[in-house]
Design a protein that fits this description.
428 residues, Aminopeptidase, 2 domains, 11-stranded mixed beta sheet, 5-stranded antiparallel beta sheet, 11 helices
């Protein structure tokens, strides 16, 4: 453990998340504007103890914390990376450019949640001054370690502001998110209302998209596939085993080993059960597909229950009284043992969206990339990262690249907005 004085702060760099007090970490996380379960101490510790994000897989933990006396005032997950896999913000071209000039790009420093392209707080801090001090401590540590670069991925707005004040470069990418709300027809300035049913949601889309979604759902139903869901401790050990079989198969079909081990999900079932929702597709009474959704919502909503029957989709256009706009569901992992046309869309989008509507979830995030998500009413949003390169000439070159790329991202978003699946105010 390295200690360094920075003004009144004491900076500590730990070789394992287990060296950081879990209660203090989580208390600081809960005080942030955009916390997520992926930044919880139990989640990050599970990545380490399960062997998923460890030096042997190219992730060397160096968690950084800032202290005032015995008070934890700032902290972030920090990794030394020996490659760029599992990040979803692609810098392979930068690494190649370094190699072509005889320079080492790896190891680099990464502030991120491994394998998890979910926007949210990365620089936990008591206040703005502590967040600024944390950024400066990160840069100073990278210089002292003679690292090529520092990267903060999928960061919250306050993180990006602190990085900008420190001179880091911003990079924007595009994700696709669904919001449980529809503007009042003919009055864009009016307050949005949430969907009362899946049919209500479909009514917000243009005719082509409504028809397409109904056709895709019908194909899965006519193939004899039904779904049940379970949440939290209602997810049985057999369900977790079946899910992992599906998850592992998806990776192996693409020629890769899965990032996450079965032991990681055992930790999730034990330590963070209420943050997980599992859908299981069945045919002829046998499980054949599954999708796992992460949840971030108030505990007052309680745990779910297993359901073996499809829930009704009534044309109820009333406001969902329990909807919390700050609650979020995250599409994470899926897999299938059989091939059924449109099964992926049903398991990964339509069932989760239906569940979100019925349980008052404010937003569903579909993960990195994928224009096909727009046809399922997941709309484009910016997801941003911040970058620091030690080499001045390469930093200048990357800055020019990011300016060009940023303009391209802006044009791309305009192009996507023009293809919105939402129904125009007076459209049938």
């Amino acid at each position: 453990m390295l200690k360094k004085e920075s003004f009144d702060y004491v900076t500590r760099v730990s070789a394992s998340p287990l060296d950081v007090n879990a209660r203090q970490w989580d208390r600081l996380l809960c005080a942030q504007a955009q916390p997520s379960p992926f930044m919880a101490h139990a989640y990050l510790a599970a990545l380490h103890t399960s062997g998923s994000a460890v030096p042997a897989t190219g992730w060397t933990p160096r968690f950084m914390t800032l202290w005032l006396g015995e008070e934890l005032v700032a902290a972030c997950p920090l990794y030394l990376k020996a490659h760029s896999y599992g990040e979803y913000v692609f810098d392979w071209a930068w690494a190649n450019a370094y190699a072509q000039h005889g320079l080492a790009y790896y190891p680099k420093a990464l502030v991120a949640v491994p394998f998890t392209p979910v926007p949210g707080t990365r620089l936990m801090a008591k206040n703005e001054a502590a967040r600024d001090a944390l950024v400066q401590a990160l840069i100073a540590w990278c210089r002292a370690e003679n690292l090529s670069s520092l990267h903060l991925l999928f960061s919250a707005a306050e993180d990006l502001a602190a990085c900008e004040r420190a001179g880091l470069m911003r990079r924007d990418t595009v994700q696709f998110h669904w919001t449980n709300a529809t503007p009042v027809s003919g009055n864009p300035g009016a307050a949005a209302r949430t969907f009362g049913s899946f049919d209500h949601f479909l009514a917000s889309l243009n005719q082509e998209k409504r028809k397409k979604i109904r056709q895709e759902r019908r194909k899965v139903s006519e193939a004899g596939v039904s779904f049940r869901w379970a949440r939290g401790r209602d997810i049985s050990a057999a369900d977790w085993d079946f899910f992992y079989r599906c998850y592992e198969r998806t990776y192996l079909e693409h020629g890769n080993a899965p990032y996450l081990s079965r032991a990681f999900f055992e930790c999730m079932a034990r330590d963070m059960p209420e943050n997980w929702l599992l859908f299981v597709g069945e045919r002829a009474g046998q499980p054949m597909a599954s999708s796992l959704i992460a949840l971030n919502e108030p505990s007052t909503l309680g745990s779910g229950q297993n359901h073996s029957k499809d829930s009704l989709e009534t044309a109820d256009f009333t406001l969902h009284a329990a909807t919390n706009p700050d609650s979020v569901a995250y599409g994470r992992y899926w897999g299938a043992l059989e091939r059924v046309d449109c099964l992926h869309f049903e398991a990964c989008y339509y069932r989760p969206l239906q569940w979100c509507i019925e349980h008052g979830i404010g937003r569903f995030e579909g993960g990195a990339q994928g224009e096909h998500k727009m046809a399922r009413a997941l709309l484009p949003v910016k997801a941003s990262s911040a970058h620091w390169l030690a080499h001045p000439a390469f930093a200048d070159a990357v800055q020019r690249f990011l300016e060009r790329e940023g303009q391209g991202i802006g044009d791309y978003l305009e192009h996507l907005d023009a293809r919105s699946p939402l129904r125009k105010p007076d459209a049938a």
